[in-house]
Amino acid sequence: MDYKKPVAQALHETLKEDLSYDEIYSLLEKPKMAAHGDLAFPTFSLAKLYRKSPAQIAGDLKESVTAPIIKDSETVGPYLNFFLDKTLISREVLNEVLDQKDKYGSHTIGENKNVPVDMSSPNIAKPMSLGHLRSTVIGNSLSEIFTKMGYNTIKINHIGDWGTQFGKLIVAYKRWGHEEEVRANPISELLRLYVKFHAEAETDIELENEGRLWFRKLEEGNEEAWELWTWFREESLKEFKKIYTRLNISFDSYSGEAFYNDKMDKVIDLLEEKNLLSVNRGAHIVDLDKYNLNPALIKKSDGATLYITRDLAAAFYRKENYNFAHSLYVVGQEQSNHFNQLKAVLKEMGYDWADDIHHIPFGLITQGGRKLSTRKGQVVLLEEVLNEAVEQAKKQINEKNPEIENKDEIAEQVGVGAVVFHDLKNDRLNSFDFTIEEVVQFEGETGPYVQYTRARGMSILRKAGQMTFDPADTYSLTDEYSWDVIKLIQEMPEAVMRAYNKFEPSVIAKHAISLAQAFNRFYANVRVLDEHEEKNSRLALVYAVTEVIKEDLRLLGVQSPNQM
Ligand code: ARG
Question: Average pLDDT of 228-239?
Answer without folding.
Answer: 95
